[in-house]
Amino acid sequence: MAPYPLIDNLEHLANPFTQFERIHSALVGGEPKLQNPDFRRDLQLALCFIYSYNGSQATFNSYRREVERLLLWAWHVKDSPASHLRRDEIEEFIHFCVSPPEDWIGTKNVARFKSHMGERVPNDEWRPFVAHVSKLAFRNGEAPLSQHYNLSQAAIRATFSILSSFYGFLMQEEAVQQNPVALIRQKSKFIKKEVTRRQVRRISNLQWDYVIETAELLAEEDPATHERTLFIMNALLGMYLRISELVADERSAPVMGDFIKDTDGHWWFKVLSKGNKERLVSVSDEMLDALVRYRRFRQLPDLPTVAETTALIPKNRGQGAMTSSRQIRNIVQFCFDQAYERMCSDGMKSDAEDLRVATVHWLRHTGISEDVKVRPKEHVREDAGHASMATTDRYIDTEYRERHASARKKPLRPH
């Protein structure tokens, strides 16, 4: 049977360094193993490790998911604290994650805990693993099925990385003597090596022309709703922002004052990106024009002032900055859908197909891919916030063009 969850959302989680007893007492009734001091210590160490990543909601969620799965498997399948697992048992756990029993697989994302009479109680519908379908399949009415669950290569890599960090933490706490994840030499059994560079997912220039033209038409028809839409679309492609860099969260809240003019009169946009690192994105003349248009609609002076605290992307209703990345996704998806319909009505259905599966992140990829054609890649790397030049090099597709050009005229009947 599927186990109950152990770790609540960050906003409901007490500080385990100072309030572990409170967390323990709330869980022990539904998890009898916590009456055992070894399992109790297991949970305390896991909570302290995960809570250390509370500076980023996304990172916290990722680390919680992997460590919680490990604890639940160790406790309920191996009847052992995670701190007692050996290298071969970690391999066994990875195999379990690749093909978990159906009882452990859900078909929708649900909250781990819910509020009941002032208390946080486990959600019976929650499962450690969730089956998904592709965006296109979902839009075509297909529902996810637990028997179709699949763990991607990226997810397997994340499992290895996070669990290795966890056991590194346990070593520092002298709870284990060695890192069993680091001892797994043949990770290639689980992780396939890429023999060629993956192509970057992006929309075509024609598709972008339709998308941005669609946003402009929407803004003309309903400025109260879609002037913001137009600015969001321009910012995502023109400054290749991540969706998390547009919404307010526990780390930062983007404001108009994040647009900064230097002593040479050049404009920059200050971003708090992955790893809590600040970066400056150069603002082009056309992006600055888009900002001016957006500010005029909001009845603000043409350009931001120093330390201006006006929310960059306001909520639909009420005061303050937008805090929901889902809202941004819905806005972008609406533009994609409208652009797709316009392209189909113009007789370009085959050219429009990518818009049915495109995501917000494709706009970032598209912006970077276009810029590396005409700008020094070192500049693009800094604007994109890539940790290494190798990441930026992925966007240079000259190699693919030349490779395909040399193969294009190959005959099927050699002379």
UniProtKB/TrEMBL annotation:
PANTHER family in alphabetical order: PHAGE INTEGRASE-RELATED (PTHR30349), TYROSINE RECOMBINASE XERC (PTHR30349:SF77)
Biased composition (Basic and acidic residues): 394-405
Organism: Maribrevibacterium harenarium
Record's compositionally biased regions (Basic residues): 406-415
CC per GO annotation: cytoplasm
PROSITE patterns, A to Z: TYR_RECOMBINASE
GO BP terms: DNA integration; DNA recombination
Stretches assigned to the Tyr recombinase domain: 201-409
Localization annotation: Cytoplasm
Descriptive protein name: Site-specific integrase
Protein keywords: DNA integration, DNA recombination, DNA-binding
Chain spans, region Disordered: 378-415
Any one GO MF annotation of this record: DNA binding
